Model the fold of this input.
Amino acid sequence: MNIEKHLTARADLNGRNYDVVIIGGGISGVCLYHHLCEAGYSVLLVEKADFSGGTSQASAMMIWGGLLYLRTLDLGTVWKLSKSRERMLRDFSEWVKPCTFRYLPRQRSVYWRFLVHASLYVYWLLGLCRRGKPSACNIFPELEFLSKQHRRALNYEEAQLQTSDARFVLQWLLSNQDDYCQAINYCPVVGGSYDPHGKVWNLDLEDQIINCQQSVRARCIVNSAGVWADTLNAQFQIDSPYKHVLSKGVFVGIPRESKHEVPLIFDTPDGQDGVAMIPWGPVSLWGPTETAVDTPNAGFCADPSDVISLLSDLNRHLKKKMTAADIVSLRCGVRPLAVHKSYNGHDHPFRLSRRHRVHLDRDSPWISVYGSKITNCVLLAEHITKIIGQFVPVRDARPRATIRRTVDMEMISFPGLDQLVPSATWCVQQEMCCTLEDYLRRRTNISQWVPRGGLGANGEHRNYLLQLSEAFVDGKGTTAEEMVETYERKIEHQFDRVLAEC
Ligand SMILES: Cc1cc2nc3c(=O)[nH]c(=O)nc-3n(C[C@H](O)[C@H](O)[C@H](O)COP(=O)(O)OP(=O)(O)OC[C@H]3O[C@@H](n4cnc5c(N)ncnc54)[C@H](O)[C@@H]3O)c2cc1C
Done:
């Protein structure tokens, strides 16, 4: 859908009736949106910021069977995630590709290596032997930049998202925009109530792009607001047996060595968790950390302590040591971990289950989603579609939609990048891109691949960003100069300040 049609559809929402309204445009919400649209429901998805503006832009982009959860013997989760990984590889082969991972065990005793190798076999079996068999290797390209302690690795196979997690999110939406199904960014839900007589939800929306308040009706609501799900439930007085524990995860992006070919997995210094070095365009992502935080907002910006601990751990593995000055980008998100609402423990987040939970409030049809991952988005969407099918009859099933191919995308070069990126005009016209940050962070990977969020180490790309900003319309009448200034301030706060304190 192009921008004109999209804006007309936005302006036309008031008073409309939908079968389902989904709140939250992260991976859980958008994948469900796609499934409900193709099942024949009329669906509205509303996102308070940009699509994938929450945790779904900050992942490791792995579609994995949950190898690390073998340490807590959570075989059920590993089984389900492995099944999900295979589904994603089969059905979305343009977006999800198989990928060799190299595990570099910390302890070098023969006993430990045997144990790790045996675990990889169990993992492979739990994945029904569909991936390549685990194997030991002594010669691999990454030895060129790794410190001498690493002489042996164990290879195993997982899958990985191509391009980025944020673009993966977008693809679920773009092919399903018509008279019955709309997905809208920058449109928070600000209020609403359930009418038990009419059996319908009335929701008040604040569209920040066309600057108006609208009301819509829905027979069922899905709260897929990720780490904000508990706040949203409280706002609408929805009681649920579950809640979220929030776990912050930070990556640093460093310049990629030419011999860094595949994701490398290391043990953390305490041996309790894993840490990855993931090649991604011109950078290698190192992380993530895992720390409990009290509020979502506390987790979406890296602290100097996160970066210091990541760098000190990283330098144990490298021949050439890195400093804060080498860091190209920071990447930060908050994992929503599902726990029972009576949980008051202080376990390390790593100890908590990674299972997702879904709760239906039958009195006022409202479904709350807890603890989802990118890997299991399809199984989760199918599960919720089935639940909705029990009380909202399907209208007529429409032809199965496929997630859109992007061959016709207009590509341009960006200073300092070898890879071409989608043009700003194209993203505005075709992909509901409203601000400079949407473009640099979620429609392209510029802000993660070019230093200082794409501004350049010394701000040398500022004028280029100014030109690009002429394309964006954020609904507030912001000029290109103001948009760049706002972006610069954000980078100064979330990147320059953090690294200066390291
Ligand atoms: C560091 C890190 C690495 C990870 N790596 C992986 C990995 O490799 N593989 C994997 O499978 N998973 C990974 N995960 C987990 C995965 O990224 C998340 O669990 C997943 O993205 C959560 O998606 P979501 O849609 O539930 O939440 P989100 O992506 O946070 O989406 C929720 C959305 O709801 C919106 N919202 C909130 N309130 C409202 C409101 N009132 N009105 C409208 N919209 C609202 C928010 O703006 C947000 O966009 C990782 C997580 C982290 C933090």
Summary: The longest strand covers residues 242-255.
